[in-house]
């Protein structure tokens, strides 16, 4: 059974930075398996923040382009999200997701709060 464990959330002031980490286990992960970060703010639908499908292929939500970076370490089955220039509207629960064998798996989420 695939398990994903996120870490690195917290409270940060506007303009600050946070780095999220996600450790994946329970399966053989191929370098081109999609690994992604989503977020969900209160009262809103879960949305894609950033995705990495291996081989340097990434895509980002327009709202985070130029501020967030997703990268992965295939040897460690890890995916990261570096968030810079954080804004109050980035406040949400952030979820790690991996697509393996046609199935999507999710972590438990980590809270990111951007506030002064």
Structure explained in plain terms:
The mean pLDDT is 95. The protein is built from no helices and eleven strands. Helices cover 0% and strands 53% of the residues. Strands 2, 4, 5, 6, 9, 10 and 11 form a seven-stranded mixed beta sheet that branches. The chain has a four-stranded antiparallel beta sheet with strand order 1-3-8-7, with no helix packed on it. It starts with a strand and ends with a strand. A hairpin with a 4-residue loop joins strand 7 and strand 8. The protein is globular and about 40 Å long. By secondary structure, it is mostly beta strands.
In short:
The chain is mainly β and about 120 residues long.
Annotation keywords:
116 residues; mainly beta; seven-stranded mixed sheet
Main beta-sheet annotation: 7 strands, mixed
Structural class: mainly beta
N→C terminal distance:
40 Å
Averaged pLDDT: 95
Number of strands: 11
Which strand-content bin applies to the residues? over 45%
Helix percent band: under 10%
Order of helices and strands: EEEEEEEEEEE
Q: Based on Cα principal axes, name the global outline.
A: globular
Could you outline the blueprint of secondary structure elements for this entry?
Elements: E1 3-7, E2 10-12, E3 18-25, E4 35-40, E5 47-52, E6 58-60, E7 68-73, E8 78-83, E9 92-100, E10 103-106, E11 110-114
Parallel strand pairs: 2-11
Antiparallel strand pairs: 1-3, 3-8, 4-5, 4-9, 5-6, 7-8, 9-10, 9-11
């Amino acid at each position: 059974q695939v398990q994903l464990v996120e870490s690195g959330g917290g409270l940060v002031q506007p303009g600050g930075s946070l780095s999220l980490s996600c450790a994946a286990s329970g399966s053989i992960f191929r370098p081109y398996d999609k690994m992604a970060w989503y977020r969900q703010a209160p009262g809103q639908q879960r949305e894609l923040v950033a995705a990495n499908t291996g081989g340097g292929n990434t895509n980002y939500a327009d709202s985070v382009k130029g501020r967030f970076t997703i990268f992965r370490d295939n040897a460690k089955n890890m995916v990261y999200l570096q968030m810079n220039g954080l804004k109050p509207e980035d406040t949400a629960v952030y979820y790690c997701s991996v697509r393996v064998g046609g199935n999507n798996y999710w972590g438990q989420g980590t809270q990111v709060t951007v506030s002064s």
